[in-house]
């Protein structure tokens, strides 16, 4: 039996051929996140970003720009929300919450 959303078409909303990913430390307080606190000259990963949609959920997918291999993805059910968060000092950068299969 098919589950809800299983047969829904996935459409590509946006492709950015080169994006940088930075590992940011856990928040120590409720203070807003600032991109200026990151090591912007030393990204932890560089690749392609594709934003797709299936049903009412968008997916931010980070992929290797040559092989297309998936590095990470984050489902975005609402914005603003848990998966995507703005930074206080830039409209160019944002925080993407990514969890592995173990919830880390």
Walk me through the structure.
This protein has 104 residues and is mainly β. It has a single domain, classed as Pleckstrin-homology domain (PH domain)/Phosphotyrosine-binding domain (PTB) (PH-domain like, Roll). Helix content is 0%, strand content 45%. It has no helices and six strands. The model has no long low-confidence stretch (mean pLDDT 87). One of its GO terms (biological process) is endocytosis. It is found in: Cell membrane; Cytoplasmic vesicle, Clathrin-coated vesicle membrane. It holds the Pfam family DUF1681.
List the defining traits of the structure above:
mainly beta; two-stranded antiparallel sheet; cytoplasmic vesicle; 104 residues; PH-domain like; 0% helix; globular; four-stranded antiparallel sheet
Topology:
Layout lengths: L9 E12 L23 E10 L2 E7 L6 E7 L7 E4 L2 E7 L8
Antiparallel strand pairs: 1-2, 2-3, 3-4, 5-6
Q: What is the percent of helical residues?
A: under 10%
Spell out the helices and strands N to C.
EEEEEE
**CATH architecture call:** Roll
Count every helix, treating DSSP H or I runs of 4 or more residues as helices.
Answer: 0
Strand content: over 45%
Radius of gyration: 15 Å
Strand line-up across the major sheet: 1-2-3-4
According to DSSP, the number of beta strands is: 6
CATH homologous superfamily (4th level) name: Pleckstrin-homology domain (PH domain)/Phosphotyrosine-binding domain (PTB)
Subcellular location: Cell membrane; Cytoplasmic vesicle, Clathrin-coated vesicle membrane
Protein name: Adaptin ear-binding coat-associated protein 1
Domain NECAP PHear: 9-104
Pfam families: DUF1681 (PF07933)
């Amino acid at each position: 039996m098919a589950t809800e959303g299983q047969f829904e078409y996935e459409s590509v909303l946006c492709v950015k051929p080169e994006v940088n990913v930075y590992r940011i430390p856990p928040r120590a307080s409720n203070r807003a996140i600032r991109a200026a606190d990151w090591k912007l000259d030393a990204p932890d990963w560089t690749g392609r970003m594709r934003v797709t949609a299936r049903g009412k959920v968008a997916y931010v997918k980070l992929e290797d720009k040559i092989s297309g291999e998936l590095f990470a993805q984050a489902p975005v059910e609402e914005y603003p929300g848990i998966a995507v968060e703005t930074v206080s000092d830039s409209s160019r950068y944002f925080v993407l919450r990514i969890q592995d299969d173990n919830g880390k």
